[in-house]
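Entry 14. Ran structure prediction on the chain below.
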Amino acid sequence: MPEQSFTGWVRRRSTSVRVKVADVSARILITIAGVATIVAVAGVCVFLVGVAVPLFVPGEVERGPAFAALLDERGEAPTTIRLGEYETIGFAWFPDGEVVVFAAADGRELARERPFGDRVPTAAAFPPGGETAIFGFADGTVSYGTIGFEPTFIEPSEIEPSFRTLPVGGTAVRGDGVVERTPIGSFRIQRLSASFSEPARISDAAIRLVDLSMLSSGPVLAAADDDGVFHLKAATVIRNMMTRRETVRFSGGSLDAEPPIGTSGLPTHCLLEGRADSALLVWSDGRSVRLDTRDRGDIGEAERLDLLDREGGRVTAVSFMNGKTTLLVADERGAIESWFRVRPSDAAVADGLRDGSRLVRAHVFPGDPGAAATSLSASSRTRMFAAGFADGSARLYYATNDRLLAVCPPREGDETPATAVAISPKDDGLLVAGPGGISRWNVAIPHPQTTLGSIFGKVWYEGYEQPE
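Output, structure tokens:
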């Protein structure tokens, strides 16, 4: 019987239906929410793992087509090779002043041009990351400008019928250029485009070495002549508003470049940093002189250093990375090192340097043992660079984390030196040129900057005094 309270009312100990329904509903909802939370967290975990794992998957490099050698009239291989922005056409530069245009798909030669006619440059430089170039001549003059490829777009109704059957992305040779069908249906034709300034005399002796940096205020060029004199000139373009004629005037200074103690002769490399506030003269034995060029009228030595860590070594290739702040130095053993400037935090050290900075060896990359590094080329979009070697092989590296990305062996039966290498504009291809021909490699390395060391360890970035 129900218990009777002191008031006389009978207490009923039964739960109402509404409470029972609410209790069951709450239990179901809590269970569903808990399971959903676990599923969501697991899904996020799977997603993060799926995103992170590809960062550590090694890239792929596979051998592409091999082309016949591009040689000049003397039978020599090119010293510089470049691909156009759309990777359908390229050019090769030869020391005798000849440019050979070729189709990137099969290496077919399209045209041979001599931008300077019968004048043979005594020095040439192609700074990384753009189309600029500078040349020096035996009469003490220099000429700078751009060399690349100019696209022209043509509607389908205006092009020859033989090209209208090209699929999207397909290419074909058209005269001295390459035509490609774009995704919107039009046709893009690329041809070589070269434009250079009138030769300007900066020395009474033959120009031996040159380099160029493009600033917002205009181009700044560095040169070394056969008398051992270093020249730094800033070009200013003056336009006549009446005649529309442009005149280029040069201003700057010069300095007798005395060889460092222990070496002799003339330097083998002259390099101007991207901000044109520092220049470097390098001799074949690795000894070098860095010049303070902040004041172009008062050039002075900033420091002397040895780019090789041993006696008897020989520098075989030198090049800047894109941006011209990190310097790559290769030697006859196949080793490659990167250098950049830092500003020491120790004021006493900084006071001993003319410009308050010093050049430091930041990274060392393993080369091809027994084969000298003969050519270097930097990516125009990342910190990737390529090195060619005396046995015809090539290697891809990432500058920031010391990572060797890929090894590209030489073609079978062809172990001639790699005189020029080039990374494609999209970092998805590599060209290796030499007397025996041109090899193309297809590159798929989506995350070259990622390693366990770079994520969890210290990294030495440009401008930092030490790894952090």
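The first strand starts at residue 60 and ends at 67. Will compare against last week's run tomorrow.
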